[in-house]
Amino acid sequence: MKQVLILGAGAVARPAVxxxxxxxxLEVIVADQNPAKAEILVAGHPNGRAAALDAGDAPTxxxxxxxxxxxxxxxxxxxxxxxxxxxLAHSKHLVTASYVKEDMQAMDRExxxxxxxxxxxxxxxxxxxxxxxxxxxxxxxxxxxKVDSFFSYCGGLPSRESNNNPLGYKFSWxxxxxxxxxxxxxxxxxxxxxxxxxxxxxxxxxxxxxxxxAGVFEAYVNxxxxxxxxxYGIEDASGIxxxxxxxxxxCGTWDFIxxxxxxxxxxxxxxxxxxxxxxxxxxxxxxxxxxxxxxxAFLNIPEHALTLKKLEWLGLLSDRKLPIGTASVxxxxxxxLKSRLVYDEGETDLLVMHHEFEAVYPGLPRxxxxxxxxxxxxxxxxxxxxRTVGYPVGIAASLIADGKIAQTGxxxxxxxxxxxxxxxxxxxxxxRFSERRSDLGADELSYWGD
Length: 450
Prior knowledge:
This protein is of the alpha/beta class. The chain has three domains: 2-119, NAD(P)-binding Rossmann-like Domain (Rossmann fold, 3-Layer(aba) Sandwich); 128-253 and 345-439, Dihydrodipicolinate Reductase, domain 2 (2-Layer Sandwich); 264-340, no CATH class. Helix content is 34%, strand content 24%. The strands form four sheets. A seven-stranded parallel beta sheet has the order 3-2-1-4-5-6-17, with helices on both faces. Strands 10-11-12-7-15-16-18 form a seven-stranded mixed beta sheet, with helices on one face. It has a two-stranded antiparallel ribbon with strand order 8-9. α1 (13-21) runs parallel beside α15, α7 (128-142) crosses α16 and α11 (276-284) packs across α12. The longest helix has 18 residues, at 384-401. It is globular.
């Protein structure tokens, strides 16, 4: 019986654990620094076992990895290189849902030399976005055509009935990740022209995007899309874009948040002594008693502006002390987001993924292909985010255990050998894309903002 070790019992682990526990030939070990969380996931299943493990305890981490056959890391992405090096040293396969960073890619030759599989980017975004895209790209090729443009959008949001705060967003994961991503540069190409978006302008450069069956959202660029021309094998395409979807008003609010310096890690205060109102007054250099007017003047907006009402709702203009001791402005803001933008029991999330392709075929009109996934969380059950990350991860680990992936090395799920069975099994579990095709007129140019 092969042993699958799952590192981390966090928000997306339950579907992965549940899926793998149903495989009669697998033993599933769930390891977490909080063993009670792991016990809940294993739920007494005869094929499962919970273990206490602090990822910072190097000897215990190494011993635990050495005993497994396949390691699934659901730890923060910063820990993946540590886990990967231990998997390499002990000849263990590895699965993650995180982006392939340079230090992971640098292990490719050694991983291949040992006949191992380090399968990354097999969650939802990245993950299902790659797999669903490549399924269509390969289908277009098989039909004798080629993809000339590919725009992809994805967003994890509160469902309509649970969208009950003025920021239109809730965190099912650590807000620090979103806060750091808010400073990322972006790059994409449209009609052959490359657009560079500096991190300082990230939330100024957005458009409105209508997604069939889901609604209208704001879309802003998600990092650098151009490397995916090569990853997807569409090097001669004239357009490629990867975007993040958020509810209306999100980008303007976060642009003001950045202007206020709420992502500042260097400016620190003793929060046993000062309040958020005093911190905000310090940032905009105004008397504490005039902080509302001071913030409005700093941002050059009226005092009745919606942004000020959002900051007030978050508690950033309050006199309530925060139990975080000496901390940075970044930490203060992260604590505020964790406190206010959370899912209450019974509330549900929404996962929207939408692809738009333009394909050209010899002697035929240009064709638009749209592929959309809309997943809603279950009240009191798994979130859409946990299902769309956890199931692909679990399916990938199962495929490796069954010897159904012949490739070796540091991989993404962009080959039919991987994406075909993963998408098929996801479909069986209820995670399905809908597809629409239409011909474009000879003189009709695509406009991706609608």
